[in-house]
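Per reviewer request, we include the raw input and output of the structure prediction for the construct analysed in the revised manuscript.
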Amino acid sequence: MLNPGAKLGPYEITGNLGAGGMGEVYRARDTRLGRDVAVKVLPATFSHDPDRLRRFEQEARATAALNHPNILAVFDIGTHEGSPYVVTELLEGETLRQKIQSGPVPVRKATDYALQIARGLAAAHDQGITHRDLKPENLFLTKDGRIKILDFGLAKVTQPQKSDSHDSPTLASQTEPGLVLGTVGYMSPEQVRGKPADARSDLFSLGAILYEMVSGKRAFHGETAAETMTAILKTEPPHLSDVQQNIPVGLARIVEHCLEKDSGNRFQSARDVAFALEAISGSSSGTSAPSVGVPIAQLKPQISSLWIALAAGLVMAVLVFIIARRTAPVATPPEFHELTFQRGTIQTARFAPDGDTIIYAAAWSGKPMELYSTRLGGTESRTLGLTDTDLLAVSSNGELAVRLTPRFYGAYAISGTLARTMLSGGSPRPVENEIEFADWTPDGRDLAIVRRVAGRTRLEFPVGKVLYETVGWIGNPRFSPSGDSIAFIDHLSLWGDPGVVSVIDLAGHKKDLTPQFDTLQGLAWSPGGEIWFTGTISGGARELHAVSRAGKERTIARVPGILNLFDISRSGRVLLSRDDWHVGILALPPGAAKEEDLTWMDFSAIRDISSDGNLLLFDESGAAGGLTGAIYLRKMDGSAPVRLSDGNSNSLSADRKWVMGLTGFDLSHLIILPTGTGQSQTVDLGSFSYHWGNWLPNGHQIVCVCNEPGHTSRIFRMDVPSGHFSPITAEGVGTVNYTHFVSPDGQFFLGQDSDRNSLVYSVQSGEGKPVPGLNPAEVAFGWTGDGKSVYVYRPEVPAKVYEIELSSGKRKLWKVLSPPDATGINFIRTPHISADGKWYAYNYNRVISDLYLVDGVK
């Protein structure tokens, strides 16, 4: 904090103007020029934060590059006692947010303000600067009625310089940070999806601001960030004439044109917006509007000349477009060559050193995973004689890294014994146990591995040296062609496969290259040095993308279905699969003699079953569920389900009246939904991130898996009405997802320690005891109705489910779950069983893959 009289070079502090997430702002006197200025100072404590310092410097650079009456002017920059500062013009007035808090702005003034904003944006866009965080808080209205655009801290600078930085969300009023670039409520659809935002994104934000100015209401607003983002993507705001009277039709059309979901359908430049606003306001920057008393006859020549000029310009534009289309080079579309023709799942594929042979692991027609080879131009594959074996990598000298007896322990998690064998033949030689991924160094002499130890997933190179570890999981590590770094997918949580593409050097310096994708799997280096990967910002249909080491991202290809990238040859040929994912429900409802298929849409994931077996709680979390997923409740008699809400659910209360879950992206707000009449509730969890939970029988408390920032997961008990948390276990303890893990009396729960061992924990003391008689790779997932025994199984196909008596360790086979068509089913999720043990439901994951070689991808 600087006191009046303090000096920063030639600037003498005269007062304090305020503070925000990016520093403190002071009124100061420029003693050299004798003028009052504003000085923004980044505190020394913040200057050690690379992200804050980067944003501070970027804002100064971006703003200083501009010289326009509608953009805040930057006079100087400097450093004082280790604290950077920037000197700007001193503004007096109020922010646009303060202006519109008192109600709608008159149309004439709102149009004038929007015109000034558009002109300022045009000047920024001309310099290759996209603001990306335009909102009423970042627009200042001076006392003389001039708009000033502020805060270029999230700006994207493409010309004249390039930025390799990754931006963080704004931390300002009305902002919900930590989701995607920008501010919720004013982001464009492409920003919501995390895709590159150009000048047209600013125009969408301008449309949202203009809508709010003239109507007094947000164009897009929900109770949570997820609801607001869904509205931006899927819904149109009410027509302006429906929310505010006397809105000119021309102004309403400009707003609608700015708010088009597809950026290609919006205005294409800020100058176009300014031109349209000038037209309806009757003014322009260069001439005055004709007076009302001018005779119409005198205007006719001017109007005729204008239309002639416009028509001539239009004809010229059409001619230029036609000539360009005829003379432009025609892009050759990529060629897809199908390599496999059987029905089943392809797990991994790699090019052999010769570039023409392809090695892949597949499970065909319901059989175990096996290794095959095929050649370009061929239609048949031959087995390598390695069954129940998965492929991890192929070295430059033809040695294979394989995974023996691969076993799923989650929807995306596979572990097994790492072994080495030559492509030419021979028995595999075991190397390391419980390995999830591996990749060869470019010279083929050594391996980097991924494995889970003590509750954390580690990337090791060489084996035993930890380069990076996380509480989430690490996927698809691949050495760069030069061997100086490893690219991988950093999945930030064990639950699901959202993640970011990262690169780490051999000294352990890590850099994230992309925003978070909703699903991200498959990665390889291209010959040109880019990292190619398959993922999507929302939904499940993964696309082929590329990102440079500097973080410049582009989309390469989209096709119907889900893409999974496996490898890229030295000549640029791409090896990928097109997958059809399907999560289905098989159930034995009360009174039924055989299992029935209760699948609803494409990804029907069971969350809970009522104790009598009559009600089934499930989510649709695939493409049919939309951006945030959807929660359903259905009777087991096969009648149509009832949609309860957007989001994803966890547990059904013992009295069957309430469902708890999340709204989708937001892990800090729990939702409580009535299954019948009643009002839904939202519980603010503060700094906690929620992952999974079950109701306790008392109906007002839950046991849940949560974590605080910087800590691993642990089990908490939470009182729902108050939101109060109390820890039960130490850190590193979790549960098996998609289960009802609390005992019928609410005194115990089934959990997993940091090494994935199943234990029975006391709700009161947190003490854990191993489940007796448990075999390796088995997990305990549910309770018998009397609470004396637990159900255990291995998530394999078919799945043998046992009851184990806790007092004695005696086991008996309860049932073998074997889908009638096992083709493509790689995983059976934990079953849900009624209290009497007679009725049940379970999920199966079916993945049907086709392997393709793709030529001509650039």
